[in-house]
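ARCHIVE ENTRY
Sequence with per-residue tokens
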Amino acid sequence: MSSIHFYLITLFPEYFSSALACGQLKKAQEKGLLHFTFINPRDYALDKHKSVDDKPYGGGAGMVMLVETLDKALQTVPSGAKKILLSPQGKLFNQKNAFNLSKQREIVLVCGRYEGIDNRLVKLHSLETLSIGDYVLNGGEVAALAVIEAVSRLLPGFMSKEASFQEESFNNFLLEYPHYTRPEEYKGLKVPEVLLSGHHQKIAKWRREKSLEITLKNRPELLFQSSLNSEDRAFLQEINEPCLGKNLYLTLLHHPVLDKFKKVSTTSLTNLDIHDIGRILRTYGLGGYYLVTPLKDQQELAKRLLAHWTTGPSSKLNKDRARALSGVRVASSLQEVVKKIQAKTGKRPVLVATSAREGDTPLVKMRELLRESPVLLILGTGHGLTPEVLQESDYILQPIGFGRKYNHLSVRSATAIMVDRILGEFF
């Protein structure tokens, strides 16, 4: 029979008394599945005051747990045990981590307090650092309890029904479907009829779709990790209304832009910019895409190309391309684009410029803006947008490759990356 021995390094062993003395955790200990040893760093303090912390080097608020006392405490655990530090600096703990840890027989959980621990302890004992979420707690005890319960319930014999956890949230990277029990109706709210039908295939289909629907609404990023079949994707496409995408507009400036000598210039339209960004427009359900050039001959060229694909001979031969280009428009200036979007939506769009060299607005900020108002993402040709355009903009996005030495993507590639990071497949 598999069992796990947890070693808790904590200043507050009493914190765990109630949680481990009730419910399934208590039963698991009675069955011999779980064992706990509590080690208090204060027992290894080096002075008469039993000090376990001190002021941080470099100054700052708070106190830091001493490396000596924690080191001595960790020297008392088995050398082969898996050692984990609970800290908001760690990798996010998830169901996969829980499953991997359930294969361990001895696990050490170090519960930090105050501002944290002396970082030398991590290297001395090869600690793996885990976090249970993007928030700060008073200490690691709450996190340790979460890890203990998530790991323990995966042990054979812990659950009364071994199959019950197979359908739970996160086991297949999907959130679990809703549950109902008696009575069939309560305060006017009825149990879904399909659950009363006794038709197992229909019930399974309903549960799968509800699981997909809830995941899409609350944790869409999980869908990228789940194994989705063709039916799943068809259902998601049916219910996924790209509402945020409708508020996002693109404009590609051919003037004013910089040339390689950093002088203001005008560039020529390219067929690829029209087609490739037009397909991005359609794929992500964006509000519109505007080509900007003050040159009349270039405007006429763009209109002829668009007409050829949207209403001309090729519109019937390639309907997908016609749909993609149907949202592309031509304008003579950025100001004209702003007026057109304002006339369409009733709101002035937020202007967000792009640059390969500067910008400090994170992409996540775009989602916040899109929930409130239309947003115009300004793209440049040539060697980028002019300083005047950047100054007129409300925000400048962080460059895509700001952490890399080489950063020279085509505008089409950059647009695809930015739009996908802003909206994603399931946003």
